[in-house]
Design a protein that fits this description.
The protein is mainly alpha-helical and 183 residues long. It starts with a helix and ends with a helix. The strands form 2 sheets. A two-stranded antiparallel ribbon has the order 1-2. The chain has a two-stranded antiparallel sheet with strand order 3-4. The radius of gyration is 18 Å and the shape is globular. It is built from 6 helices and 4 strands; from the N terminus they run ααααββαββα. It has a single domain (5-182), classed as Jann2411-like domain (Jann2411-like fold, Orthogonal Bundle), CATH 1.10.3300.10. α1 crosses α3, α1 (5-18) packs across α5 (113-130) and α4 runs antiparallel to α5. The chain binds zinc ion (ZN) (2 copies). Residues 46, 95, 97, 100, 103, 105 line the site of one zinc ion.
Length: 183
């Protein structure tokens, strides 16, 4: 199965936002307005910006909430998604702008960036939940990594956040087998 393309992009950008802090170390990639500008450009967020510390702080505050949704069971996820939609008075509207064909905005493009990120993610999660695909959202299986991921593979086989963790765990398993054979 496939989610709509815009849903997939939103889920991937939300995971990237969550993973901008933590993971294997405690560095925060969103440590300046310039870093936020880069993130916004990379993921092609449109709409109004204020380019100030308040905007950055609001986006950073959104991360633990999204992480909480990502790592919840389905019932809890539903409650948290509904809460985000209520909080921002989401009103779904079909829109078309820039190079994007028809998709849904549930708040105005004049709303703060963090609000748009929150509602956009909530709307994408509505798709995931309705399709019964919440198992596709989970944390990396590597024991020393808490990054989150979106498993878009055909058979829901993705276990690691990225090639780095996948290769590292494969190498560890290989060394463990070697050690077992030589013991
Ligand atoms: Zn849009
Ligand atoms: Zn990982």
């Amino acid at each position: 199965m496939h989610f709509a393309h815009d849903t997939e992009v939103v889920l991937l950008s939300a995971a990237a936002l969550v993973n901008s802090v933590g993971g294997g170390d405690d560095t925060d990639e969103l440590d300046s307005v310039a870093a936020l500008d880069d993130f916004v450009a990379e993921w092609e967020f449109t709409g109004s910006r204020t380019h100030d510390e308040a905007e950055l702080a609001a986006v950073r505050r959104l991360r633990p909430r999204l992480r909480g949704i990502w790592t919840s069971d389905e019932e809890t996820m539903v409650g948290l998604v509904n809460e985000l939609l209520r909080e921002h008075q989401a009103l779904p509207q079909l829109v078309r702008h820039d190079s994007f064909s028809w998709h849904i905005h549930a708040v105005s493009s004049e709303e703060p960036l963090a609000t748009r990120m929150a509602v956009e993610t909530a709307m994408a999660l509505v798709d995931v939940i309705r399709l019964g695909e919440t198992e596709r959202l989970h944390s990396c299986d590597a024991p020393d990594c808490d990054d989150v991921l979106v498993d878009l593979s055909r058979n829901r086989s993705r276990r690691y956040c990225g090639a780095g963790c996948g290769n590292r765990m494969a190498a560890q398993a290989y060394r463990a087998r070697q050690a077992g054979e030589s013991a």
